[in-house]
TrEMBL record:
This is DUF5709 domain-containing protein. Residues 12-21 have a biased composition (Acidic residues). It comes from Lentzea albidocapillata subsp. violacea. Residues 49-72 have a biased composition (Basic and acidic residues). Residues 1-72 are annotated as: Disordered. It comes from the Bacteria.
């Protein structure tokens, strides 16, 4: 193997220790899911809901506009 990476230097370890889970008491890669992210909480998951679709105005009220859309 080549020695291009160089030797381990104690001075460089501070950057890695700053992200150590034991010191942070939290995993920086672990995130909480957003509220309402589960599809199972949406309408249409039960037999009754599948047999009785929601009215169009309820479905339209759930829609969100495109990003950057202006009221023209």
């Amino acid at each position: 193997m080549s020695e291009e990476r160089g030797a381990y230097i104690q001075e460089n370890s501070d950057d890695f220790e700053a992200l150590d889970e034991d010191n942070l008491k939290h995993d920086p890669l672990e995130t909480e899911p957003e509220e309402g992210w589960a599809e199972s909480t949406k309408y249409g998951m039960t037999e009754y809901e599948q047999a009785h679709p929601r009215p169009l105005d309820e479905r339209l009220a759930e829609e969100r506009g495109d990003v950057g859309e202006t009221g023209a």
